[in-house]
Amino acid sequence: MSKQLGKKIAPTPMSTDISVVDLIDNYFTAYNSARLREICQLLSNEVLQEGVTVGVSLSGAMTPAGFGVSALAPLIRNGFIDWMISTGANLYHDMHYGLGFELFAGNPFLDDVKLREEGTIRIYDIIFGYDVLLETDAFIRKILQAEAFQKRMGTAEFHYLLGKYVREVEKQLGVKHSCLLATAYECGVPIYTSSPGDSSIGMNVAALSLEGSKLLIDPSIDVNETAAIAYCARENEGKSAAVIIGGGSPKNFLLQTQPQLHEVLGLEERGHDFFVQFTDARPDTGGLSGATPSEAVSWGKIDPDELPSTIVCYTDSTIALPLVTAYVMNQTQPRTLKRLYDRREEIYEKLRTDYLAAKSQPSEKIPSTVGVTYPCGKLIPNTP
After folding, report:
1. pTM of the model
2. Rounded CA gap, 46 and 51, in Å?
3. Domains of the chain, earliest start first
4. By the 8 A CB rule, do 74 and 329 touch?
5. How far apart are the C-alpha atoms of 277 and 57, rounded to whole Å?
6. pLDDT at 384 exceeding the cut of 80
7. Active site residues
8. CA-wise closest residue to 81 among 321, 319, 354
9. How confident is the model over 97-121, as pLDDT tens digits?
10. Which pLDDT tens digit goes with each residue over 80-95?
11. Residue 276 near residue 372 (C-beta atoms within 8 A)
12. Are 297 and 307 contacting, i.e. CB atoms less than 8 angstroms apart?
């Protein structure tokens, strides 16, 4: 008998009162259902524990479907998400709910020409009025004129301020369930965007720049702050977890924190301790969204010693996220909020201090390139 045998598959008929935990633990027996079960159990037993800093990347149109309010916000309030990287589109459409606008279930086979004539927007099988976009845009442009936004900042500070204003609107409107941005603001969870110009939020920022706005989103701040979060996650024998919903640019921005630390800054050489992902992308096309954890090891993004604990579930994130949320909230005690947003300056300064100290010391890992001739024949000049 093979020593690699796992739990015996012993199917029993489902009862009418089956719980989500029972369903996942005992009926998700093979293939991607088993991978989802393994992720649920790994999160509950090892990841969502004190001492682990959990970063979540979010891509795909998740918030228009309501998952910002229904799943991600509860995870934040329970202390299960410490920091996030999201597409700007997810944050933009999340605001519709915070501002009290309505989105509706449709179907993917509607006549789009007719929808356009009627002033209706379609995101696959979600529909809403064109006025929702216009009024959300107007809200963004109005609040971005506030003095607090008239400076250079990273996207964490930008989204924190945005969430603050959205939360005030929720209170005024009596919105019962806070959206993702407002919840992150209240819980001190920093949210970054890897491509701040690639969304309607960024489009409105750009429009205001034509009017003389002094707001400048600086991606270098984000690169260093996210690296600092990953770096300081290991204090006091802590660990770092990467939970990836979808793929795309947010996935890379979350995982590149480790190469930034060891390849560019010359600090520690370790990857994230935990890696789980939900994706429908294939690895054989060479795209990042489908890139496997083992491939990430070659870049130093994942700790090779932790590779057996990395899990990829090939499924639709809209199926996985509500199931995982229900499971971990049932099985895991809430954690103390880390409020990493409030600690940004502190952890940034630690990264900067350690980087400058490491830079001043000779290192065999990162040899000097000054005066080195490369195959292209160009010489890197000596500089002061």
Report:
1. 0.89
2. 10
3. 20-357 (3.40.910.10)
4. yes
5. 9
6. no
7. 301
8. 321
9. 999 999 999 999 999 999 999 999 9
10. 999 999 999 999 999 9
11. no
12. yes
